[in-house]
Amino acid sequence: MELTPGLDRYIEQNSEEEPALLRALRRETYQKTTQPHMISGILQGRILSMLSKMISPDLIIEIGTFTGYATLCLAEGLSETGKIITIDKNEETAYLPKKYFQRSEFAQKINFREGNALEVLPFVNEPVDLVFLDADKENYIKYIELVKPKLRQGGIILADNILWKGKVVTEANDRKTEIIREFNRKLKEDRSLEVVILPVRDGISIIRKK
Ligand SMILES: C[S@@+](CC[C@H](N)C(=O)[O-])C[C@H]1O[C@@H](n2cnc3c(N)ncnc32)[C@H](O)[C@@H]1O
After folding, report:
1. Is the per-residue pLDDT at 48 higher than 70?
2. Which end of the chain is more exposed for a tag (fewer CB within 10 A), N or C?
3. Best probe residue, ligand 1, of 39, 42, 72, 88 (max atoms within 8 Å of C-beta)
4. What CATH number does the domain containing 55 carry?
């Protein structure tokens, strides 16, 4: 969500700095990919890192790696023996996350799976502490159905883009807006989950399994 440019700057200046490796990854994402806007913003990245540190997860699943920015932010909070499984089906961009994962201090903790998340997720059989949902909106509900049974009690799902650039409260009735509205409605109605929406960037839902 839009703040004034002054407040944006103030928040950034008074929050943790973006680590150097992530700064380089952001630069290369803008230089080398055709849809660089898909990368998580600096503030969103620091929020993901902070939430992960608060949870100290043993297993994180990220659905939608893109160039690996959020993967590296989330990895900052992993427990000593923790790992993150990150999934993306885009073969063209896969060289970038691979390059930066290798350079990172978390290289041994990152398991990058190239493929369709709908096909990869059924093979994850360990209990999951934290999920970052950031892929195709059409399948958001299916992803929740797939990961919910694997999530520990008290486990967290973070879902990105759930305000859809503010369109959820407009008259817009295009397919993607309807899908996001339906997703938000379903989660709110699900008595086994607790939801709170953070008005950060394009909106992040924090979803907790009761
Ligand atoms: C918004 S980007 C992810 C951004 C990344 N999480 C970050 O914070 O920088 C969405 C990614 O989801 C991937 N994606 C879309 N549908 C997918 C699917 N069914 N399975 C796996 N990846 C998918 C796309 O290839 C794209 O790289």
Report:
1. yes
2. C
3. 88
4. 3.40.50.150
